[in-house]
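Issue: ligand-bound run for flavin mononucleotide - logging full I/O for the record.

Environment: standard queue, default settings, no custom constraints.

Inputs:
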Amino acid sequence: MPTRRDVLRSSSSALVAAALLPPGRGVSSPDHRERAPASGPARVASDDIDAGPIAAESEPVSLSDYETLARDRAPKMAFEYISGGAADEITLKWNRESYDKIRLRPRIFVDVSKLDTRVKLFDQELPFPILLAPTAYHRLVHPEGELATARGAGAAGATMVAGMLATTPIEEIAKAATGTLWFQTYILKDRGFTRDLIQRAEGVGCKALCITSDSPVVGVRNRDARANFSLPPNLERANLRGLMRTGGNLRSPEGDIYTPILDASLTWKEIDWLRSFARIPVILKGVLNPDDAELAVKSGASGIIVSNHGARNLDTVPPTIEILPDVVERVAGRIPVLCDSGIRRGTDVLKALALGANAVLIGRPYLYGLSVGGDSGVTRVINILKNEFKVAMALSGRPTIASVDRSVIWK
Ligand SMILES: Cc1cc2nc3c(=O)[nH]c(=O)nc-3n(C[C@H](O)[C@H](O)[C@H](O)COP(=O)(O)O)c2cc1C
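Outputs:
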């Protein structure tokens, strides 16, 4: 009798999805846009780790289950775009392996009958330290795109970092959002447009600004190229109306590594420029080197995100969890340090916090949730991870965020 896990690992993907999806959520349509958005049961006892996320036999129970299902649900080109990494995907592999090889050091007979997962970031209280990282083009995998993500994040109590490369304008995302929104942007060649965009985001209530700092050019994405990835004609980079032709491919023609909009000449002086008008905290995303972390503090940034862009930019950079301790040591508590890339389990969240992160972000997993179940898929992905994190806190004998320190890691 095959177990659910056997079924998930089966090579017959159609069978997998058919076995896992509740009735009425079939996968036969090749075009996800023809289906009604799946409502999906978000039956999670979010504050009760004994119960945990309640899953019927047919429902995905882990973030990797969602990836398995999304492989079937999403159009192939979209799945390749989301799941892929740069070049040979060495860092993509390391991002996972590095978490897996860290061992935990639990304590017993610690009162964990109450857990406190709250964290304070930039004067905002988050109920738990997991945010949704900015990702592009949500309508690739669901007709409601970023609107569904915003609703799903809000229902789970998670902050969503809305992306500049959204397929829905930030104003509409903000209207749909029921929880806290941050905004991510690149500093574009057109500084006036960049400034307007930031002010639009501030104007609709975004509470922090993530500046993607690791992308003067786009990484070598062999998987995208093999899948012939470009934005389908019915979708657009909705925040960039007025700046460029908003569909198609962002890349320049072959032979040119630069893109029409990203500015490869950025230097630290741009942070002074940003701070001269930004009214919300400026967080630099994509810091890997402790020397850059020092410069980020000196530049007046409010926070940094240790990120290798989900292994999508420069292949063979280290996994973020390995360099996090050095960055945290250099920053020495002067500004919050967040971390992403490869987080898939509650134990990963525990490990990142133990090594000094103030909070973590996830990227691909919630896109898989969106693809499989729309807003409730997003909610459920967050709730699964949150619940796993609480289980990890309880079973390691660390009832508060403050107690999740380096002693949780088995040297
Ligand atoms: C499909 C996709 C699109 C992304 N788009 C952006 C983007 O436009 N800007 C950005 O700063 N990061 C982008 N990222 C990177 C995420 O913000 C985040 O750093 C990464 O996904 C974290 O790794 P994980 O997917 O392993 O959780 C993207 C990631 C994915 C998977």
